[in-house]
Automatic annotation (TrEMBL):
Region (Disordered) location: 696-739
InterPro entries from the UniProt entry: DUF6049, TonB_box_CS
Lineage: superkingdom: Bacteria
Keywords: Membrane, Transmembrane, Transmembrane helix
Extent of Basic and acidic residues compositional bias: 730-739
Organism of provenance: Sanguibacter gelidistatuariae
Residue stretches spanning the membrane: 657-678
Name the UniProt record assigns to this protein: Glycoprotein
């Protein structure tokens, strides 16, 4: 229920004045407010659940910018958290008229215990006669701002502490003891808006998913689906910030790239993840969006290991407007090695953690959140978040939207007052694990953009601002992060990825082999795996198995040993291809003995899922048993198959011996033929000299079976006995006896 307003009876003016002075002195004493304090307050602890008998929650405070002539309205919810009824409860609204001038003193107000002074009571309202155990009621205070008698002008404007307290009677506490106290803030603004120089506030939040293994989509999808569900963490991050175009996002492209690339559903993701990705892409228009390295790689681990991270992939067309010049290392203080790595990788913007690179403690104001840091690889610009306000965004100490909003705008009022005439830019960030309550985050961001002394601006405005000449703490030279990848693990991942990349040169579509392995190798380096080292180890094991399956797809078919009996020949080598696409490989032989020399390697195309034979020429220069190692190479000469070998029995002298024996046999046969010809004489079948002469003279020669042997002899004898002489001119020559 809502109680009726009942003004407190006022005493005489003199008594009121004395009480006001005493109250102010008591508050100042209890707060221990110094005259000059450093601008940066300590980071507040996260809100804890109160153990007070009564819980008081701020529902609304209006107007949040309270000016002269306004009516201040405060609505609070009061709950009896005990099992005992509270009788005669009374709610009081109190104001501390002291204007906070430093952030340290300001933060001390809400840390005071219930028993500490709450300031001047400006209104007291009785609650129902009995506040039953576990019961809840609502109380509304309404006070004229002018009745608060706060200072005016430039000197008077700024935040004050206000409190809602509850007293009552119970079994274990007296009526004068506060049973519950809510401490929040009122900002008194008795000046014109144009008299104030607002503080530019930039907000950058990470949009990164849980650890994901592309080789195990079934096991990884539930985590991503849960995070992108309507009540999931990523959905809350987007819901908290999408209504504020000035809020920048640092997004892991892996969780939205499938939708950005072709609009199709990613097979490995859930419907919730796909719907969330589409919604997020639509909401990213018109704001600063920074693409983190794919899968949010742990650059701190790479830097600590002295290993360069993989080169960033080109963003899909749908993400082409996203910036890629920012790195966000997951470490409390950026190390010099991380800064050097960022500079060499072409990312000159580095987000520091809240609380890092703090300004000189003697500085009495909050400087712009930029720092220029020189490295051996170039100069980088660090984006330095405000530690206190970033903590309030990440884990508000006030648990209601109205109280969290007042806490945010009140501290910004102090920052604005530190340098009233100077334009400064500050940065607020949230951790990667940020799980906001959208109503609270929206109230905080809306408050920044709804007051005269602050304005919500894009991160690009901060980046373009001048870097202040302010001394800051130095980066760390080294750091140890629990759960981060070791140098050996990173080196192993790179070796696995490189092996598949070299192997893939043998196929016409290398991406079909390298893409799954590259994605898994990048995913294994995600910052998110720090919270689950065992899960990361399992992911690396799956990656190793996948790479082994790929690189063992080309193999040498087992075959028996060879016997080589000639000085020159070819060895047939059979290669098997288990891939679903053809492979072009080079077969090279490496004998382990100089008695066998392998000629030039042979390139062969092995069909998909089949075998092919390559005949490699060899040359024997001796005799013996030789082991020949078979190497299957990619086009660039990289060994891509498991080693294999065959035995070769080199017997090249057998060929020479066989030739000699054959030649000897030919000589023997020739000699035998000549000997037989000489010793057998003329054959009866051979023609006589007379027959030959007749043939030469053209006479007819009768067949042998028609010639009379006797007549033949008689006709031949005279001619043989006395041939007729002839002269040189062919005439018959005179016989000597005829003279």
């Amino acid at each position: 229920m809502t109680a009726l307003v009942r003004p407190i009876r006022r005493a005489g003016a003199s008594i009121v004045g004395v009480l006001a002075v005493l109250a102010m002195a008591l508050i100042l004493t209890s707060l221990g407010a110094p005259l000059a304090l450093p601008a940066a307050a300590a980071v507040p602890e996260p809100a804890v659940t109160s153990t007070a008998p009564v819980a008081v929650r701020l529902l609304s405070l209006s107007p949040e910018v309270t000016r002269p002539g306004d009516t201040l309205t405060v609505v609070a919810q009061i709950e009896n958290t005990t099992t005992t009824d509270i009788t005669s409860p009374v709610a009081k609204l109190s104001v501390s008229k002291y204007r906070y001038s430093t952030r340290v003193a300001f933060a001390g107000w809400e840390d005071l215990p219930e028993s500490a002074p709450v300031g001047t009571t400006v209104q007291a309202l009785p609650l129902p006669d009995t506040l039953a155990a576990g019961a809840t009621t609502t109380i509304t205070f309404s006070v004229e701002a002018d009745s608060l008698t706060l200072m005016g002008g430039q000197v008077g404007w700024g935040p004050r502490g206000i409190a809602v307290s509850v007293t009552g009677e119970g079994t274990s506490y007296p009526a004068t003891t506060p049973l519950g106290v809510l401490r929040t803030y009122l900002v008194w603004f008795p000046v014109a808006d144009e008299e104030i120089t607002p503080v530019d506030v930039s907000v950058l939040v990470p949009v990164v998913g849980p650890a994901f293994d592309p080789l195990d989509p079934v096991g990884s999808t539930p985590g991503l689906g849960e995070a992108t569900d309507k009540t999931g963490r990523l959905s809350k991050v987007v819901a908290s910030t999408e209504e504020f175009p000035a809020v920048a996002w640092a997004v892991d492209p892996a969780i939205v790239s499938a939708v950005a690339r072709d609009g199709a559903d990613e097979p490995a993701t859930s419907p919730a993840a796909t719907a969330w990705a589409r919604h997020t892409l639509a909401a990213s228009g018109g704001r600063d969006v920074f693409a983190l390295p794919t899968f949010d790689q742990d650059w701190s681990a790479f830097a600590a290991a002295g290993i360069s991270p993989p080169q960033r992939e080109e963003l899909p067309t749908g993400l082409s407007t996203w910036r890629t010049d920012l790195a966000w290392p997951a470490q409390a203080v950026p190390t010099t090695s991380v800064l050097r790595l960022a500079a060499s990788a072409g990312t000159p913007l580095v987000v520091a953690a809240p609380g890092a690179l703090q300004p000189d403690p003697e500085l009495t104001y909050t400087p712009t959140g930029l720092a220029s840091l020189a490295t051996s690889s170039g100069t980088v610009t660090a984006l330095v978040p405000d530690a206190v306000l970033s903590s309030q965004l990440a884990a508000p100490t006030q648990t209601s939207p109205a109280a969290a909003r007042q806490r945010m705008v009140a501290e910004l009022a102090i920052i604005s007052r530190e340098r009233p005439a100077e334009v400064r830019s500050i940065l607020l960030t949230a951790p990667r694990s940020w799980t906001p309550t959208p109503e609270i985050a929206q109230a905080q961001l809306g408050g920044i953009d709804g007051v005269p002394w602050a304005r919500l601006m894009p991160v690009s405005t901060l980046i373009d601002a001048p870097v202040p000449d302010v001394a800051r703490s130095s980066p760390e030279t080294s750091s140890t992060v629990q759960g981060a990848l070791t140098r050996d693990e990173l080196a192993s991942l790179e070796a696995t990825r490189a092996a598949v990349e070299h192997f893939a040169q043998v196929v016409p579509d290398p991406a079909a082999l390298t893409t799954p392995v590259d994605a898994a190798a990048l995913a294994a380096t995600s910052v998110a795996w720090r919270n689950d080292p065992a899960g990361r180890t399992a992911a690396i094991d799956r990656l190793t198995a996948e790479a082994d399956d790929v690189t063992s797809s080309i193999s040498v078919v087992s075959q028996s040993d060879f016997t080589l009996i000639s000085t020159g020949s070819s060895l047939p080598i059979t290669v098997h291809n288990a891939l679903d696409q053809p492979a072009t490989v080079t077969v090279q032989l490496k004998p382990d003995d100089p008695r066998l020399v392998a000629e030039a390697p042979v390139t062969v195309v092995v069909p998909a899922g089949s075998d092919a034979s390559a005949k490699v020429k060899v040359r024997a220069v001796g005799r013996g048993n030789v082991t020949v190692y078979i190497q299957i190479l990619s086009p660039d000469g990289t060994l891509i198959a498991s080693p294999a070998s065959i035995g070769v029995r080199v017997r090249a002298d057998w060929e020479n011996l066989g030739t000699a024996i054959f030649a000897g046999l030919l000589v023997v046969l020739l000699g035998v033929g000549i000997w037989r010809t000489i010793h057998r004489g003329r054959s009866d079948r051979r023609a006589s000299a007379a027959v030959v002469e007749q043939l030469e003279n053209g006479d007819t020669v009768e067949p042998a079976d028609r010639i009379d042997p006797v007549a033949s002899v008689e006709s031949i004898e005279p001619a043989l006995a006395d041939p007729e002489p002839s002269s040189e001119d062919g005439e018959p020559r005179e016989h000597p006896h005829e003279r």
